[in-house]
# Entry
Amino acid sequence: MNQYNLGDLVFAAIDLRNDPLEDTGEGGVPGVAADELLAAAGTRGVVVNVGHVEADPTQDIYLVRFETGPDGTLAEPIGCLADELHYGAQT
# Structure
């Protein structure tokens, strides 16, 4: 069972950066530099899809669209692992 579901409101638990690909060193998100900040810790987002890591079908991956500013505009979805997300504001 998934820890998060479609439509869930979540927050980034850590700063989420564009991880470089092992074989090329380029960022995994096209058009974004490797290691560029995608969502700061505490940024609110919504789960838009749920799947699993191809190499490990037991490892869930969540596509999340995070807010990009005070107007609530949502960025393109990025893949997140469960431990990179949490419900509610951090205290």
User: Anything to note?
Assistant: The beta strands are 9-12, 16-17, 37-39, 44-53, 56-66, 78-80, 85-86. Residues 9-86 form one domain. The mean pLDDT is 91. The CA atoms of residues 51 and 61 lie 5 Å apart.
